Amino acid sequence: MEKNVHKTKEEKDYTELQETLIQVGLRIAKRGEGALFVVGKVSYKPLVEQRVPSFKVIENPKLLESLALMDGAVVIDEDGMMEAYGVRIKSTKIFKNFGTRHSAGISAATGSNLVVLVSEEDKKVRILKQGKMVMQIDALQKDVEKSVTQTVRVLESVGAGTLGAIGTSILAPTIGLALLPGVVLFGSAYYLTRFISDRFNGSK
Length: 204
Prior knowledge:
Elements: H1 10-30, E1 35-39, E2 44-46, H2 61-68, E3 73-76, E4 82-89, H3 100-108, E5 114-119, E6 124-129, E7 132-138, H4 148-158, H5 160-166, E8 170-171, E9 183-186, H6 189-202
Parallel strand pairs: 1-3
Antiparallel strand pairs: 1-5, 2-4, 3-4, 5-6, 6-7, 7-9, 8-9
């Protein structure tokens, strides 16, 4: 609980972590493979022997990518350190119309946890927070990697608390999201469009 208090200095690190996970997820998705990353506290059962020592994931994305390709999820602690890999997350919820990886992901997206899910079926990267899908990124969209930094800015600007409070109706790309090709944000369309537009206009 005390980790959440150190926000100011760790905010940048957390932003970098999200960027790293999305970039790694996009590379995996482009190859038609799946993966699941969970940042935060979650119950899991290792499926493989944990021989790789903990490391800071933003400093070694290639190793992170290799571990993510194993069966199971990669768990990362709130400081951005790899905690476990090849683990089974207990599913307590069902992600309608999707498979077991999605159910595990939505089950792990509790509290302040961040979940980045890569689907091999449709080659999309999905961001889950507070039990909801909050963003979807199409890995097949041309040059989508160039939008990752701004995508993370949108996530940081809206915040999990806001998303949790307003629900999950689809937001079509309008003024605030027109610069993010291949990215769909989920939430209240009117509220989020105004919120994001105000934040980005204020920062210019």
